[in-house]
Write a sequence for this structure.
């Protein structure tokens, strides 16, 4: 390579870095920066008025699983924390599964409409996004509560004698999250099904596959990228959900999001809140890695 | 064995749409397809040939009539219950599976033991000469190779009938010629009944044992390539297959009287009222001097095609005829524009056809 060419390559590399500076700057400030602050705070000591004192401590991290008895000062396993983690993970998984079960037929329906109608159906799917999350959640509250829509209808029809107690609990949280995150499942599924060649259905039936086998052996493997994308889009925000469990869980049925809030506000324990936030991040990352790896392995082996 | 029928369509009707807007894609179609023959459904687009194929495959249910396979009515069976496989126009290979997995799919769905699936898959890949590609994803293959995978996949479960829906239309000319020979070889080697759909008459003539010419939802004629070319039943078949001259006149006993007043000998023709149509293929015209008799005509133009020369002629009443003259060594047909000639026809070449 001549020196002129060498210099040209150098110049283009340098220009490349210069051009990406704004993006790198933004990433540092917006993503890495706050994360770093949270990480540092998790290793500090809580202050008196809900701030942090700059003394190194791992009590924030210990506090995730253990709690100090306020009378004896002894450390014991914090069952309540584990319950919250378990509730968060199980409700998020349940939400992901149900949004898929509801979203797949919906996305299939839209993708198989004539092209002119599809835009309208997709538009209808996105309408809930126009309304504030809080209002949508209170709407679910209105549907589920004792004097709510479902109970009123069931009582009128004589299906039940006394109103069902559906509000303030895991069930209500699950219903709310499924409703709120359903569009996030439908849209990537639609994108994947839209690309699916419907001739493959005929090819499958022709080659002796039953309807169920066509679904399992042909449709699902091919639209899997859409299923993965939709599941991630639903699972990740479900795990960190804050508004929905707050409004529909009734304050006692906390999820990780509410638990973190509690530490930062009422609990005045910022290091524990920061450590919990990091744990949430770790759970999400591990879940994604496992899911993506599992998905990829499945693809390469057919 | 030759008359052993595999597929029998009986008075099959297929209508799309409802009520007055319903369109009959197939209008009372009856056809018998024999065991181990290469049977072609030939016709222009929209003639119903693909609909008939889809009815045999089970992708559509007939509105009326029935379809028999080895004598049993299969009209209402779903595709996965019919021992019939399809090679799709777009191939419809499974993109998430390898070549070998595509070929094995049907066998696995039939619940064959793994060892048999493996052995049959290997045999099929060898049959279409794709052993080396077994582990590839189908997107990595060329059009011709994908075509072979589609064939191997459809042949692997050893169907009683293989349906081919214009499988060669996406290939370029050279590859198409190769695949025509390949298909014929596969059909002879496997002994499976092939039902082949095409709009390409040359493809149909060169490959088929028998051809059904279709138009407007009806079967116009069924026969060997030779039958259909030499004895077309009606005007549609005559014009769709090969090039044809039409002669219209009045039928007299033993001859056709043209508008010019001239008579063409047609032994066997009986006098009848109304116009009668006859056809004659361009290669059956013999041109001579006017003094030697025959239909009097004038040369309008000459088109040189290499092996032969097309001579466009006008009769006295303006009827257009084309004669295909084999080119002599010199390449000169010995004719020029404006020449007057006498046309004679080869024995039996002029035939009456239905309109």
């Amino acid at each position: 390579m001549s020196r002129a060419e060498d210099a040209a390559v150098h110049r283009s590399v340098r220009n490349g870095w210069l051009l990406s500076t704004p993006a790198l700057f933004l990433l540092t400030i917006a993503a890495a920066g706050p994360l770093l602050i949270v990480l540092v705070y998790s290793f500090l000591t809580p202050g008196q008025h809900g701030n942090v004192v700059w003394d190194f401590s791992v009590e924030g991290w210990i506090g995730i699983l253990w709690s100090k008895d306020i009378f004896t000062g002894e450390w014991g396993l914090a069952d309540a924390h584990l319950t919250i983690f378990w509730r968060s993970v199980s409700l998020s998984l349940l939400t992901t599964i149900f949004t898929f079960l509801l979203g797949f037929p919906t996305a299939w329906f839209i993708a198989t409409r004539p092209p002119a109608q599809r835009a309208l159906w997709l538009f209808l799917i996105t309408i809930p996004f126009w309304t504030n999350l809080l209002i949508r959640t209170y709407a679910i509250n209105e549907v589920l509560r004792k004097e709510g829509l479902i109970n009123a209808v069931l009582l009128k029809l004589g299906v039940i004698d006394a109103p069902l107690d559906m509000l303030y609990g895991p069930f209500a949280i699950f219903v709310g999250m499924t409703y709120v995150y359903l569009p996030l499942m439908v849209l990537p599924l639609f994108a994947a099904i839209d690309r699916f060649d419907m001739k493959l259905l005929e090819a499958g039936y022709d080659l002796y596959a039953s309807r169920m086998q066509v679904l399992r052996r042909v449709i699902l493997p091919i639209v899997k990228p859409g299923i993965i994308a939709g599941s991630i889009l639903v699972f990740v925000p479900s795990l960190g959900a804050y508004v929905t469990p707050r409004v529909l869980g009734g304050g006692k049925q906390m999820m990780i999001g509410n638990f973190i809030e509690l530490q930062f506000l009422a609990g005045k324990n910022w290091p524990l809140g920061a450590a919990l936030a990091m744990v949430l991040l770790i759970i999400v990352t591990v879940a994604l890695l496992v899911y993506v790896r599992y998905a990829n392995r499945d693809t390469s082996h057919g | 064995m030759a008359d052993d029928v595999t597929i029998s369509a009986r008075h099959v009707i297929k209508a799309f749409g409802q009520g007055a807007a319903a369109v009959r894609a197939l209008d009372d179609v009856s056809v018998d397809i024999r065991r181990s023959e290469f049977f072609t459904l030939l016709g222009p687009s929209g003639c119903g040939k693909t609909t008939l194929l889809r009815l045999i495959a089970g992708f559509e249910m007939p509105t009326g009539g029935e379809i028999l396979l080895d004598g049993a009515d299969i009209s209402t069976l779903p595709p996965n219950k019919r021992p019939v496989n399809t090679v799709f126009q777009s191939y419809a290979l499974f993109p998430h599976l390898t070549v070998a997995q595509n070929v094995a799919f049907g066998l696995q769905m039939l619940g064959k033991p793994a060892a048999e699936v493996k052995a049959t898959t290997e045999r099929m890949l060898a049959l279409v000469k794709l052993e080396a590609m077994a582990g590839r994803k189908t997107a990595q293959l060329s059009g011709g190779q994908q075509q072979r995978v589609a064939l191997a996949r459809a042949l692997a479960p050893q169907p009683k009938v293989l349906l081919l829906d214009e499988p060669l239309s996406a290939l370029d000319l050279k590859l198409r010629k190769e695949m025509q020979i390949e298909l014929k070889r596969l059909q002879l080697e496997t002994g499976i009944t092939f039902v082949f759909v095409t709009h390409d008459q040359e493809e149909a003539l060169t490959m088929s044992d028998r051809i059904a010419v279709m138009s407007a939802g009806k079967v116009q004629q069924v026969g060997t390539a030779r039958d259909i070319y030499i004895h077309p039943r009606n005007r549609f078949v005559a014009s769709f297959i090969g090039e044809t001259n039409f002669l219209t006149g009045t039928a007299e006993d033993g001859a056709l009287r043209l508008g010019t007043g001239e008579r063409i000998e047609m032994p066997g023709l009986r006098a009848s009222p109304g116009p009668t149509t006859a056809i004659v293929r361009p290669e059956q015209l013999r041109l001579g001097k006017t003094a030697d008799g025959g239909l009097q005509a004038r040369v309008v133009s000459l088109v040189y095609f290499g092996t032969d020369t097309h001579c466009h002629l006008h009769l006295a009443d303006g009827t257009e005829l084309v004669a295909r003259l084999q080119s002599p060594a010199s390449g000169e047909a010995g004719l020029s524009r404006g020449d007057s000639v006498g046309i004679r026809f080869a024995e039996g070449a002029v035939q009456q056809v239905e309109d």
User: Anything to note?
Assistant: Chain A has a mean pLDDT of 87.
